[in-house]
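Task: encode each sequence below as structure tokens.

Item 1
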Amino acid sequence: MEEGNFTYDVVDLNNPTHVECLKKLWHDPEVQRWTNRFHLYFEDYLTELLQKSYALSSYRIISLNNKPLGYINSDVDANTKTLYIHFIVLLEEYRGKGFGKAVHLDYIDSLKAKEVRVEIHESNLASRALAASLGFEEYKKDQEEGNTYYKLDVDKINNMRRNK
């Protein structure tokens, strides 16, 4: 895995690099497999994001050394310091190489979260394996949507790091 610092910039739909990254992800067959329920064309997706400009702040482009790797959609409850990760999507060339785990750990650290919650579709085997490797525990299932909800006490990650 390439060395450097991750950055998490709010998605800027006027930035061609951001739009190109989103477009690549939108048309990626692996991403389409678990987002097929949205049935949107990319241009409709951008229009929807623009109409919900308040939601753009929860979408961030993940970059390493100024090179986009993917994007993250998340929210933080300021009172409880709980980070809700709705999804992290990496470009195909960064999958299976440790970037997902590194991004999760770095992003959690950068926000100083105390607890992390994620929802993962049952068909997303790679994300489910990653969540298990980080110590996430299942706490709820939504049979209708096919999602499983996991949570993680951040102290668990910190203890895991100390014991290495």
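Item 2
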Amino acid sequence: MCNRYVPPKRVKVKLREQLYEAEFRFEDVRPTDPAPILLADGLREMRWGWRVPWDKKPLTNAKSETLKELKIYKDHLGQRCLILTEGFFEKGIHFTKSNRRLFAMAGLWRKEKEGEKFTMLTTTPNETIAPYHNRMPFLLQPEQFDEWLGEKWETVLTNPDKSPLEKVMKQPELF
């Protein structure tokens, strides 16, 4: 599943009548990398991936369909976040919204002994992603940002943004 995305260099987002603006130094984000994350109370830097006892690798993705059933997620449903991005990669192909505009992926976050960390929600693929993978990040429309971070988050879970994406490029083969 998605284990690489492109964070924005500059953010200007209005959330709950508050305007958040920031510039970032981040390049592509991969598991365990720091990234800008938007919470209801502002922007924070967190690392991608939760520690789990059953795997040495961090838990980077969470199936949206099982979010309310699995204990690992249920304990953190009140800790929702927006993962700000300009695109993500799947099978070496870079996917973006039209005009490469900023968008957000739904996530959960939690505090661990090493600091705050987040995991990305996933859902079934839209028509653009389906030929490449059976899952995709849970994308949000801008009008869903407040709802995801607020009291209406459960209605958002049933309505991911499945609008078509643009394929930007395929990475060159490395080997």
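Check on item 2: The domain at 5-170 is CATH 3.90.1680.10 (hypothetical protein yedk fold). The first helix runs from residue 71 to 74.
End of task.
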